TrEMBL record:
PANTHER family: PROTEIN YCEI. It comes from Cardiobacterium hominis. This is YceI. The lineage of its organism: Bacteria, Pseudomonadati, Pseudomonadota, Gammaproteobacteria, Cardiobacteriales. Keywords: Signal. Gene3D superfamilies: Lipid/polyisoprenoid-binding, YceI-like (2.40.128.110). It comes from the Bacteria. Residues 1-19 form the signal peptide. The keyword Signal applies. Residues 23-176 form the Lipid/polyisoprenoid-binding YceI-like domain. InterPro entries: Lipid/polyisoprenoid-bd_YceI (IPR007372), TTHA0802/YceI-like_sf (IPR036761).
Length: 179
């Protein structure tokens, strides 16, 4: 009987661990900020920011995501063609503005609102977020995964890229429960 009681208590304690909001650190090897921009209307050129960091808090009971903070290193943009990447770094003035950041300010009905700072200018944006999954991973950690997609107009942030007035952004990734 004592063993059953101990097992029941352990089960309750472990469930309580995940019932409260949990902080997750972004896993940079499984977190992607991808972009795609039209090139003169002839094709869409993809790109990937290779250096991303941050954290967020997720409440599995309510589905709320909060305290999101993401840092993207602008010079890490890779479109697969070095000469184009050099041109983009000049347009983006990445030496002067090496980071783009997002800090959440609210969550409602699957919509995450926050302050996006890009090219030195900060604006409020709201993006739809969908949960991909959560659970234990094979290495003993606990993960959650989310994604969003939205359109960014660089000129709204003072970055004029005439050949790409709009950029499609897709963010997809995982966080590992902070220890």
């Amino acid at each position: 009987m004592k063993i059953r009681t101990a097992l029941f208590a352990a089960t309750l304690c472990s469930a309580a661990t995940f019932a409260a909001p949990v902080k997750f650190e972004i896993d940079p090897t499984h977190f992607y900020v991808q972009i795609s921009a039209s090139h003169l209307g002839f094709s869409h050129i993809p790109g990937l920011f290779k250096e991303v960091s941050g954290a967020y808090v997720y409440d599995s009971e309510t589905g709320e995501i909060k305290d999101v903070h993401v840092v993207v290193k602008v010079p890490s943009l890779d479109t697969g063609f070095a000469e184009r990447d050099e041109h983009l770094q000049k347009y983006l003035e990445s030496a002067q503005f090496p980071e783009a950041t997002f800090k959440s300010t609210g969550w409602k009905d699957g919509q995450l609102t926050g302050e996006l700072t890009f090219h030195g200018k900060t604006q409020s944006i709201t993006v739809p977020v969908s949960k991909n999954g959560e659970g234990k991973d094979p290495w003993g950690g606990y993960r959650s995964g989310f994604e969003t997609a939205f359109t960014l107009k660089p000129a709204d942030y003072g970055a004029v890229i005439e050949v790409a007035p709009e950029i499609a952004v897709k963010v997809s990734g995982e966080g590992i429960q902070a220890k």
